[in-house]
Structure formats: structure tokens, C-alpha cells
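Continuing the batch. This is chain 6 of the set; chains 1 through 5 are on the previous pages. Same settings as before, nothing changed between runs. Recording input and output for traceability.
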Amino acid sequence: MLAAAIALGVVAVLLAWPAPIAFSHASWPSRAPATALVLWQLIALAGAAAIIGALGLLGLALLPVHPIAGGIAFGAGIGFVLHLLGHLAATAYSVARQRHRHRTLLDLLSSPHPTEARTLVIDDGAPVAYCLPDGIGSLTVLSRGLMERLKADELAAVIAHERAHVEQRHDLLLLAFRAWRSALPWFPIAARAEQEVAVLVELLADDRARRSADDLVLARAIVAVAGHRGEDLLAAVEERADSRRAADRVRRLVA
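Output for chain 6:
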């Protein structure tokens, strides 16, 4: 049993450091964001399970010979579980409050889009587009500046992108990794995982938008929303409009 606890501990270490480091430096996730998101979730879940399992088995191995040490190991495992669940609950509550306040402000400062359902328009000259997840009450928010700047097909691509976030419930995934980072602020991999997941959900939303929009149209829309930050890559996008990597370079710049 002690050997099993040690083995799980080794697995936990591998999943906590070298595996996510190597994964975050790989080039393929931008080409397969859905697969990469699944792997990040598996790394997080398996890593947590390995830590809990190692502590539990260590407690069982020590109880017969060192009851106090065994009890401490069990307590540490239970405490770790409660720590993670507590931060998940606290993060979910904080996000829900923020969204409620945001929705209240939108009710005061926005107006319904004339043709798009569940879409609000804010009177702002800056190019802004985002979604406000809330289950069946989710909204897409656009600014007048964005609507004036984009062509019809580019605006449609942006709306498709934002609706993909809502339909695929990317907010739940981001919430989980935000809670993980909150629970382990001293753990650099937690911050790296949150950042990588944030980029991957943007790429996944782009994939959904590509079903109804040309790559070049979507890339132009991304550049328009990003402003000057993406302009230096627009030439590369135009030269390789059929290249997913060109559009990905723009997304990684502005994400």
C-alpha cells in the first residue's frame, strides 16, 4: 500500500509540473483546441485525484504503525478536497454576483439589437463584443463602434464566435480553472493552465464561426476588434487566407 501511495505521488508530481509544461509548449493544441481542452481537464482532474489518492493510501499504510501520522495524512487528503470544493463554490458565487451586477448595468445602458435575438447594443465608439453567460438567459453584447466598423459578414462572424462561447458553455470551463488557480495561487502551473484554456476556448469559438464565415473574414473581424495590436499580422493572414495557422497567429496575438 505504501508503494501504491508513492507511485501515486510520483504521478501527481509528473502531472503537476513536467507534463503541463511540455503540453503548454506544444504547437498542436492550436490546431486541435477541443482535444487540448479535454487533455487540460484530464491533467487537472487526474492530478488532483493522484494527490488525494496518495494521501489516502499513505494514511492507510501508516495507521497500523503510526496512527497519528496516518490520521494526519487522511486529514490532509480531506482538507485538500474541502479546499478545492470551497474555492470552486466561492468562485462560482463571485462570478454569479459579477454577472448579476453586469446585467443590471446593461439593462440601463444598452438597447436590443434590431434584428438579432438575445443581443444588446451599447452606445460606445470602441469595438467591443462579448457574451454574458446565464443559461437560457445568455446574451451577446456588441458596441455601436464595432457595428459601424465591421462589414455585415465580419459582424456575423463575431456574433457566431460569441454565441459559440454560450452554446458550448465555455464559461463553466473557465470558472473551473479560475477556481483551481484561486485554490493554488502559489502553484505556477495553475496560472499557466488558466491562460492556456482561455486561449483554447477562443480558438474553439473561432472553429464554430468558421462553419459560416470564411477564414479571412473572421481574421479581419479579429483584427478590427483588436485594433492596432493585430494589424501587423493582417498581411500574413491575407497571403494565406486558407491557412488555419495564419488565423491562429492573429488569435494568439489578441487573446
